[in-house]
Amino acid sequence: MAMAERSRPREKEVMMDVDSGSRPSRPHWFERYVQPCAAELLGSALFIFIGCLSVVEDAGGTGRLQPALAHGLALGLCIAILGGISGGHFNPAVSLAVWLVGGLNITMLVPYWVSQLCGGVIGAGLVKVVAASERYVNTSGGAFSGIAADEQIPSVITGEIVMTTFLVLAVCMGAVNEKTKTPLAPFCIGFTVTADILAGGGVSGACMNPARAFGPALVANYWDYQWVYWAGPMAAALLVGVLVRFLIGDRTVRLLLK
Q1: ∠215-217-219 over CA atoms, to 5°?
Q2: CA 136 to chain CA mean position, Å
């Protein structure tokens, strides 16, 4: 009897050890907060460096093909490399939409935006360092300079909303929504950017990304119609959030009929 009683505490200790071992350890604060922001900054810097440089150094005769391929391939590769750390947004509009559909904690939304904008400035600054000064000036450092008159604003904003909706929808449905999530999401998202630039580059420049607009605008000090490239993509993010939450998302993200 005494032996049995003495064995019970030991059994309880073993049970506690098994229970504690079965619980997944919570990620360290560095992995939860610092690493994702660092990944967003690095990915945004690399993507915007490649994108802006492809515009500044655009070889004659390629038209929109060179910037389209450079932007799309760079974004897809950055998402494939860094997406496991931060989700691979590299775009304030994408972060807003992903938060709206439940894929990002609200405490990380503003830090992501700050990281993306700072990354955009770093990437655009590196372009100014490596590019020939004459080409840099002629292209305004890769900033969006296609709007020449106020009459273009309605078509530009409409184009930005539609193209950004396509991009953000590819992100939310390909990387967040459980029912449609795919391991090919990085390349689907990159191809979406390529298709948007090929189709709509002549309409609005196909920005789809406030960080891509802000970085070169700050470095080259070119602010003409800058607000357009914020209003269009952010409106598209809100639109996609509504579509996914109320219509096409699966039960884990849809607000109705759960």
Answers
A1: 70
A2: 26
Per-residue pLDDT at 125: 97
Q: Could you give the residue ranges of the DSSP H alpha helices within 87-209?
A: 92-100, 109-130, 133-138, 153-171, 185-204
Virtual torsion, Cα 60, 63, 69, 75, nearest 10 deg: 100
**Chain CA centroid to CA 173, Å:** 14
Distance in angstroms (rounded) separating the CA atoms of residues 103 and 111: 15
- Can you read off the two tokens belonging to residue 142? 């890769």
The pLDDT tens digits for 190-204 are 999 999 999 999 999
Q: Give the other-Cβ count within 10 Å of 145's Cβ.
A: 16
Q: Is the pTM of this model over 0.85?
A: yes
pLDDT band at 54 (very low <50, low <70, confident <90, very high): very high
